[in-house]
């Protein structure tokens, strides 16, 4: 009987600690996804630089100014068009930060993999991003 109580105590202790960790990661993911949505909306909005900048880390904001953000918008819109939908495909957590991978539908047989990286625990905003066309047969 005593053995069952110990096993139950250990089980519930582990269970509750895992729930706490999942809640922390859920809050971080929600924050990161909000920043991604702000950034993606800004890419398709005229004069969207200030919104995009609010979601970027300082290191990325130094590389992307108002002028080259406009060029980036044109390049993405000309190369891929406008996305119809975007779904989170993977969340990877590393000591150095988080990597979110999205699959975006850009129309007829055109899927784009969008990889966005954040600092540890989503702090400081988007650090880098990449758009890659996926082969659809």
Please provide a written account of the structure:
The protein is α+β, with helices and mostly antiparallel strands and 137 residues long. It contains four helices and four strands. The protein has helices spanning 2-43, 49-55, 58-63, 66-80; strands at residues 85-93, 98-105, 111-118, 126-134. Strands 1-2-3-4 form a four-stranded antiparallel β-sheet.
What share of the residues lie within helices? Answer: 40-55%
Structure classification: alpha+beta
Radius of gyration: 20 Å
Strand content: 15-25%
List low-pLDDT spans: 18-22
Provide a concise account of the structure shown.
This protein has 137 residues and is of the alpha+beta class.
Defining traits:
about 140 residues, alpha+beta, 4-stranded antiparallel beta sheet, elongated
List the helices and strands and how they pair.
Blueprint: H1 2-43, H2 49-55, H3 58-63, H4 66-80, E1 85-93, E2 98-105, E3 111-118, E4 126-134
Antiparallel strand pairs: 1-2, 2-3, 3-4
Helix pairs in contact: 1-2
């Amino acid at each position: 009987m005593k053995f069952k109580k110990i096993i139950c105590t250990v089980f519930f202790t582990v269970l509750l600690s895992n729930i706490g960790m999942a809640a922390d990661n859920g809050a971080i993911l929600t924050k990161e996804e909000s920043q991604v949505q702000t950034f993606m909306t800004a890419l398709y909005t005229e004069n969207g630089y200030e919104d995009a900048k609010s979601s970027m880390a300082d290191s990325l904001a130094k590389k992307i100014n108002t002028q080259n953000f406009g060029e980036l918008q044109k390049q993405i819109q000309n190369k891929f068009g406008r996305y119809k939908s975007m779904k989170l495909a993977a969340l990877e957590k590393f000591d150095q930060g988080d990597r979110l991978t999205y699959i975006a539908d850009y129309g007829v047989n055109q899927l784009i993999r969008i990889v966005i990286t954040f600092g540890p625990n989503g702090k400081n905003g988007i650090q880098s991003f990449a758009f890659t066309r996926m082969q659809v047969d």
